[in-house]
Amino acid sequence: MALAVQTKGLTRVFDAKRKFLRRRKPENGEPAGPVTALDGVDLEIRDGELFGLLGPNGAGKTTLIKILCTLLLPTSGEAFVAGYDVTKDPFPIRTKINMVSGGETSGYGLLTTRENIWMFSQFYGVPSKVAKPKIDELLHTFGLWDKRDSKVRVLSSGQRQKMNMIRGFVTDPDILFLDEPTLGLDVNASRVIREYVMNWVRGQKGKTVLLTTHYMMEADDMCDRLAIINNGRILAVDTPGNLKRRLKKDTTFRLEVDPLKDTSPLKGIAGVKNFSETSDGGGSVLKLTFILEEESAVSDIMSEVVRQGSKIHYLHKSEPTLEDVFISMVGRSLE
Amino acid sequence: MNPTISRHWRSFKWAAWLGWQIESNWTRPSLFAIYSVIKPIASAFILVLMYVAFAFIGKIDDPALFNFVYVGNAFFIFVGNTLFGTFQVIQQDREWYQTLRYTYISPISYYTYIVGRATTKVVVAAFAVLITLGFGVGFLQIRLVLALGDLPLFVAAFLLGILTLVGIGVCLAALSFLTARHVHGLAEGIPGLFYLFCGILFPLSILPQWAQFVGRALPLTYWFEITRRLVLPPEYQIDTGIVGDPLTMLGLLAVSAAAFFVLSIGMFRWMEYLARKAGKLDMTTSY
Ligand SMILES: Nc1ncnc2c1ncn2[C@@H]1O[C@H](COP(=O)(O)OP(=O)(O)OP(=O)(O)O)[C@@H](O)[C@H]1O
Ligand SMILES: [Mg+2]
User: Fold this and answer.
1) Strands of A3-14's sheet, edge to edge?
2) Does domain A249-319 fall into CATH 3.30.70.260?
């Protein structure tokens, strides 16, 4: 089967020196030196696949998409999209792809919604006979019909995002890159988009989608295959079902306890494969999710909690979810 | 159509369309029309005030000189608008509209796209120039003559002058792929330089020797010289210190337009490459 996307040892290092460059999500204590956003990524996405990229903030998802979209050059390694090298042959790639990135509000405020989409369709040379009805259809599908003749500057950010989704589909790309497409959208709009994307890929031949997301449910429900990425490295690539099966032998326990002074001893307990912690209720409750190789480790966990003078409010054993797969590999939860 | 030509054509056409929407769509059409007329007339009044002040202080009262200055300033509208308009395209798309990444990854020629956007600026400027000249003729005793036989020369000089400006503008735009702040200064400074050294406000001949030398090295000097020779009546011609027949000057303009065209393509490719390498194509600067 032909490959829509292929990367070989793809690496991207960012120079952190430039002060005037405002980073996406500056975090305190970020290293002052260069940042390795992608570190030897080998990935193969087949034609016709709905492929998901799952990883925490800063994992390198957007960086990978930018390289594949010809917006960014790799530092080393190779990447091919539709068989063309992103470094040497960006132009033929551009005729076959499109990209939509969620959570941003791009668009020409002085144009109407329809004009904005129309103009981009013309950049791709979509004939007007095709573009006009298609734009109308998509405006209906994404619930933007009412706003078709509104200036973009009066659209809400969610509406702008829907407009950008339409911009992505109207050019009928072979490969569509969606960077967190449902970020910040309401439940209904997210559902519409998910369904549309799935039908778009599965209802016709030769359409490939690479999607990044923070939503486990989205990744689990939508994707044919998933890559789990952390710190610029691909940790696993498989179908959601197979990823979950990897944990079949393991058990998942969820605990809610009073905040602990120190969670590091939990890691050392025999039988604990990995765990994640999130605090809730303004820091009054600590939620712990454990992936256990041996169920007996539960008693050691409980004694450690009690030893630190904390109380257990809740304990629950569950089937492994994709979230648990993620926790077992990355050591933190996504939510 | 040949695919390459069709790509450049659609890049140009839709960029020009977009540019026009941005220029004209910010208010109601009636207001836009009024604004387009008032703005150049207001600038013309500033010139009149300047001239009156000069006449008062320096006791210069020379209609030929006023014509010289007025026509020069009217045509200078092209310079600022074209240069700044071309330079701004990248920064606007990248930071105001945040569309640059989507435009950039579409199968257009981004270079041609910039030129298309710039063309709108030239058209808008042309309108302002016409209003300014018309106002001058109607109310300020500006006299213009343009023989039909001179029209081809006038148009050729105009096109080459604009091409040179667009070339310089694209060079600046290309630089702004990498940095916004410093280029902004350049884009404001360069028209000022031209204003001083290209014989817009005063004839080259009254400048010191070194400045005259600079002026002669700048291609726009010849565009303004040709234009004035063609549109001002014989009795209003003043000695600007530039000798040479118009065709030679036109040749010089052609060479400079070609040089800046080549330079702009080179700069564009190079800066685009550096920006793609550094990850700055879709940066947002705090500037
Ligand atoms: N232009 C840049 N300059 C410097 N560092 C960058 C740049 N872009 C990304 N980085 C760094 O590269 C790393 C990966 O960033 P990237 O945006 O790819 O993460 P992500 O997986 O998309 O995260 P998120 O889920 O938050 O969107 C981060 O550490 C980030 O700070
Ligand atoms: Mg991202």
Assistant:
1) A35-46, A3-14, A76-81, A84-85
2) yes
Nearest CA to ligand 1 atom 29: A58
Residue scoring higher pLDDT (B178 or A6): A6
Enter the pTM of the model: 0.87
Confidence of residue A28 (pLDDT cuts 50, 70, 90): low
Encoded amino acid at B47, one letter: L
B27: in domain: yes
Q: B63 in a domain, yes or no?
A: yes
Count structural domains, chain B. 1
Min Cα distance B27 → chain A (Å) is 9
Q: Is residue B285 part of a domain?
A: no
Distance A198 CA to ligand 2 centre (A): 21
Provide the number of CB pairs (under 8 Å) joining chain A to chain B. Answer: 94
In a domain, B60, yes or no: yes
Q: How far is B34 from chain A (nearest CA, A)?
A: 19
Using a CB-CB cut-off of 8 Å, the residues of chain B touching A20 are 179, 181, 285-287
| Closest protein CA for atom 18 of ligand 1 | A60
Lowest mean pLDDT among A67-71, A157-161, B49-53, B219-223: B49-53
Q: Could you count the other beta carbons within 10 Å of the beta carbon of residue A249? A: 8
Task: Pick the residue from chain B with its C-alpha nearest to A152.
Answer: B97
Domain boundaries, chain A: 249-319
CA pair distance B189, B206, nearest whole angstrom: 22
pLDDT of residue B95: 86
* Residues in a beta bridge with A290: A253, A275
